[in-house]
């Protein structure tokens, strides 16, 4: 017997297939819900939706369908074209690695078969994120140090 989340996901997949037709390449659930680590009523349903092409009309369609998963937790969808996914791993290596590690293919092919995550790009993004946080921490420390 399927649970409430699985039924909602199944309905969403059916609706997205009907709405996008041949333009829909894959739908991937990723993150804590896909890994089975979700926190009841708190974890978002993270969706990667890969389309062959993306128009403004396609994005408007998604608003209607992603609203279905508001109960018990909201759906948060990111849209890529299949071509963008192939070329974006150098820009989003941390995010793609997280998606790759905890994912469930709901429809279509596995888009991570097309994605190569480079250790060099992963190191670069990690260093960028850490250095940015260090700069922010220093900026926040200066006014706070007046009281110390």
Q: Would you write up a description of this structure?
A:
The structure is a single chain. The chain has 148 residues and is of the alpha+beta class. The protein is 50% helix and 18% strand. The chain has 6 helices and 4 strands; from the N terminus they run αβαβαβααβα. The protein has helices spanning 4-20, 32-35, 56-66, 82-88, 93-101, 119-144, and strands at residues 24-30, 45-51, 75-81, 103-108. Strands 3-2-1-4 form a 4-stranded mixed sheet. The N and C termini lie far apart (59 Å).
Give me the secondary-structure topology:
Elements lengths: L3 H17 L3 E7 L1 H4 L9 E7 L4 H11 L8 E7 H7 L4 H9 L1 E6 L10 H26 L4
Parallel strand pairs: 2-3
Antiparallel strand pairs: 1-2, 1-4
Helix pairs in contact: 1-3
Helix content: 40-55%
Global geometry = globular
Tally of extended strands? 4
Low-confidence stretches: none
SSE order, one letter for each helix or strand: HEHEHEHHEH
Proportion of β residues?
15-25%
In angstroms, what separates the terminal alpha carbons?
Answer: 59 Å
Q: Strand order, biggest sheet? A: 3-2-1-4
Instruction: Quickly count the helices.
Output: 6
Mean pLDDT: 83
| Helix-strand category | alpha+beta
Radius of gyration: 18 Å
- How would a crystallographer describe the biggest sheet? 4 strands, mixed
């Amino acid at each position: 017997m399927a649970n409430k989340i699985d039924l909602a996901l199944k309905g969403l997949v059916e609706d997205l297939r009907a709405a996008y037709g041949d333009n829909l390449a894959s739908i991937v659930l990723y993150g804590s819900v896909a890994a089975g680590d979700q926190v009841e009523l708190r974890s978002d349903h993270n969706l990667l939706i890969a389309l062959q092409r993306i128009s403004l009309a396609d994005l408007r369609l998604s608003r209607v369908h992603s609203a279905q998963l508001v109960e018990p937790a909201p759906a948060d969808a990111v849209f890529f074209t299949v071509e963008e996914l192939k070329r974006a791993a150098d820009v989003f290596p941390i995010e793609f690695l997280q998606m790759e590690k905890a994912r469930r293919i709901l429809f279509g092919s596995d888009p991570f078969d097309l994605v190569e995550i480079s250790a060099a790009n992963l190191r670069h993004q990690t260093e960028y994120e850490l250095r940015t946080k260090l700069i922010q921490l220093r900026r926040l420390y200066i006014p706070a140090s007046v009281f110390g």
